[in-house]
Structure formats: structure tokens, C-alpha cells
Design goal:
Number of helices: 16
Helix content: 40-55%
CATH superfamily of the largest domain: Glycogen Phosphorylase B
Largest sheet: 7 strands, parallel
Strand content: 5-15%
Radius of gyration: 21 Å
Structural class: alpha/beta
CATH class of the largest domain: Alpha Beta
Distance between the termini: 12 Å
Order of helices and strands: EHEHEHEHEHHEHEHEHEHEHEHEHEHHH
């Protein structure tokens, strides 16, 4: 099959869960013998995605989008619809596309309009409700930009609704995100297929000794290390995680280090909270973790925490940690529940409740035998349910079964 993936962002310029998913699923589809093409924004710079994927750029079609820091960036939804339509229309005349696989609403709608009369399967991958993300991020902007975004939110919601309604089939990663889609956009459940995200079970595996990982990263061999990796955003629950560590440090005698990897808009707020709680000795914001170092950070850790308070559609980092043989404590938010409940419901805590999170961490630290059993169970769970080979085959079969 000829598969055209439409995404506003690609690795490595942007390193989020959606970009990681697209990178890995495209590799799997190619492995299975399909030709994969891309429509993406160049963001005013050359894409390196093809080099990461060991391909030339002949399969990547780029349209011009406004830079992230442009003062006109709120016009991006409209501009991206127009520009993606133009390039998708050109592709529709050049290539015989079998599957149009969409990952963002603006580019998705533009491409759907361009392929309106083409006989191909049109699939939208609903990762998260975009307008809700806008709403949750409002407090991080200036008053002027907040007002502008508030006016644009209904437009963003409408664009996404048209895109999912015009698509023939929709993929989501979890039951949680399926319910969001159905309730917000009034979509028939028969139109929706749940296919979870995946993990590279070879790259993220328990085989790497913790001692070697810590030595490579220059970390203490004595400390209990708790790791969290995510974008530094309000909905990721990182403030509550820091407050929880404050409780844990007072309650436990062990030397504890919390490492928070990632960049984002609340970085200064987190630094101020760490200083206010006098936790500089125990909490470190280590910034963006390069991809090649990520497996070492997982293996160097004793516990991983996914503290999101809302809109956690799945959580690829949760799978990476589990696959690495690291116990994960997660909030009862979104798709995290659907992963961790398969291991132990006691690993879940109430979203936004720092005391609940602190109790879960302390309970796990005080039960080393349970921690040891979770290491093996988590790794096996990923091998049998979430390997990219398995997920890639599921996506392929979904395309084949519906493209008749």
C-alpha cells in the first residue's frame, strides 16, 4: 500500500509523544513492505526526519508554516489548512495513495479536502482534543494572548470536529481517548478503533545494569532515584510531584533524588517551588534528555512517575519505563489507568493529590520484594502487548481490512 502520513511535526525537531509514535509506526509500515510518504511543515528549516529514518527526503512533502515564535502564529490553523490542501492536491495527482493517515486537525482537514474525490481510506488518529489543550495552556500566556486564544478556541474545536467527521475511520490509543472523542465530537463508536501506542522492547530493556547506567550519567550509586520525563506543562502534574517528594523526604530515611527531564513553559515556576520547599538537594530539573541517553536514565532509576492531571491519552514514557524494568506510579488520569491496572491498581494515585502520590511512593520504597516483581512483570507486559512489531501489524491490518 501507498500510505500518506500527514503531521504538522516530525522528529527530531519536535520530540513529543505524537512525533515518537509517527516515527516508529512509519518504520513498522515500511518493514511490512508498504511505501510511506509524509506531508509536514518545514517550520522555516530543513527537516532531519528522513536522515533519522535512513531515507532521503524524496518521500517528504513540506509546506511552509509560521514559526512558533511568530506574532501571527494564531493564524496557523487557517494557514496550515490552505498550505496542506495545496500540497496534498499536488500529491493526489502524482501518487496513487491507498491510505491517508492524519495526525493533526488543521493539516488533516486540508488534506481531506484535497483527497475528497480520491478513492483511498481516510483515517484520522485522534491523539487528544486540541481545543482542550489550548484551554489548559491558557494560564501560561500573557493576558493579551490569552484573550486571542480564547476567541480562537471555538474555531479550533470546529476545525477538529469537521476533520474527524469527514474521516472514514478513527484510531485512538485508549478507551479514555475514545470517550473524549465520542463525547466532544459526537462520533459513532463504530467508526473508532482502539490501537495502543508501542515501545521498542529491545532498546528499552532491563538488560542494562543500573550501576553502569548511573556511572555513565554521573549519578550516585547510593541514592534512590525517582524519574519523571515529560514536557514541563501544568497538566503534567509536576508541581504535585515536587510537593509529594517533600513529604517522602521527611518520611523516609533514604537519600532520595527526583530527576525531572524535559523543557516547557512552567520551568521557572518549578524552580521557584523547589527553592520554596528547600528541596534543591533532592530535586533536579535536568532539562531535555537526548534520545541516546534516555534508556540509561530509565535503567538508572528505581521508580518512574507519570503524574499527569488531565488529557494523558496514553503515555509512551510509561511504556518505556515499564519495558526498561522500572516500576511506574501513575495518576488515575486518562490512558495511564489502562496500562497500570494490568499490573497493580495500587500503583495508581488520585490526580493532583500530592499526599496520595507520596503514599504510593513510600509504600513501594518500603516493599523491595514487590518492586522486584513489578520490574519483571512490567517488562513482560510490554513484550507481549506493546512491542512496535505488534502495534505496527495491528495498524496495517486495520488499514487492509477497511480499504476494500
Amino acid at each position: 500500500m501507498n500510505i500518506l502520513i500527514v503531521s504538522r511535526k516530525l522528529l527530531p525537531e519536535f520530540t513529543g509523544g505524537v512525533e515518537t509514535y509517527i516515527f516508529n509506526i512509519s518504520k513498522q509500515l515500511k518493514r511490512l513492505g508498504h511505501k510511506v510518504y509524509f506531508i509536514t511543515s518545514d517550520w522555516g528549516k530543513q527537516s532531519k526526519f528522513s536522515k533519522v529514518n535512513n531515507k532521503d527526503e524524496s518521500n517528504i512533502y513540506k509546506y511552509r508554516g509560521l514559526p512558533e515564535k511568530s506574532k501571527f502564529k494564531l493564524l496557523n490553523p487557517i494557514i496550515n489548512i490552505i498550505n496542506s490542501y495545496c500540497i496534498a492536491k499536488k500529491i493526489s495527482k502524482q501518487l496513487n495513495i491507498d491510505v491517508l493517515y492524519l495526525h493533526f486537525p488543521y493539516e488533516g482537514l486540508g488534506s481531506l479536502l484535497a483527497f475528497k474525490y480520491e478513492k483511498c481510506l481516510k483515517v484520522y488518529h485522534f491523539h487528544s482534543p486540541t481545543h482542550r489543550e489550548w484551554q489548559l495552556e491558557l494560564p501560561t500566556y500573557s493576558r493579551y494572548e490569552r484573550l486571542l486564544r480564547i476567541m480562537f478556541i471555538p474555531v479550533v474545536k470546529y476545525i477538529e470536529r469537521i476533520a474527524v467527521q469527514k474521516s472514514e475511520k478513527i484510531i485512538v490509543h485508549s478507551n479514555y481517548m475514545k470517550s473524549q472523542l465520542v463525547n466532544i465530537h459526537k462520533i459513532s463508536q463504530q467508526k473508532v478503533k482502539i490501537i495502543p501506542g508501542g515501545v521498542d522492547t529491545i532498546r528499552f530493556s532491563p538488560g542494562l545494569p543500573r550501576k553502569i547506567s548511573r556511572k555513565k550519567l554521573g549519578l550516585s550509586e547510593k541514592n534512590v532515584i525517582i524519574l519523571s520525563v515529560s514536557r514541563l506543562a501544568r497538566r503534567k502534574g509536576l508541581e504535585q510531584l515536587i510537593e509529594a517528594i517533600d513529604y517522602v523526604v521527611k518520611k523516609n530515611k533514604e537519600d532520595i533524588s527526583l530527576l525531572i527531564g524535559g523543557k516547557g513553559e512552567i520551568e521557572e515556576k518549578l524552580k521557584n517551588l523547589i527553592a520554596k520547599k528547600k528541596l534543591e538537594k533532592f530535586v533536579n530539573l535536568i532539562g531535555f534528555i537526548p534520545d541516546e541517553k534516555l534508556p540509561y536514565y530509565y535503567r538508572a532509576s528505581n521508580i518512574f512517575v507519570m503524574a499527569s492531571t488531565s488529557l494523558e491519552g496514553f503515555g509512551l514514557a510509561t511504556l518505556e519505563a515499564l519495558s526498561s524494568g522500572i516500576p511506574v506510579i501513575g495518576s488515575k488520569s486518562g490512558g495511564t489507568i489502562e496500562i497500570l491496572a494490568k499490573l497493580d491498581k495500587e500503583l495508581l494515585f488520585e490526580p493532583g493529590n500530592s499526599r496520595s502520590l507520596a503514599n504510593r511512593i513510600s509504600n513501594l520504597l518500603n516493599n523491595p520484594s514487590h518492586m522486584k516483581s513489578l520490574e519483571e512483570k512490567g517488562s513482560q507486559l510490554c513484550i507481549h502487548n506493546y512491542s512496535w512489531d505488534l502495534i505496527g501489524t495491528k495498524v496495517q491490518d486495520f488499514f487492509i481490512n477497511n480499504n476494500r
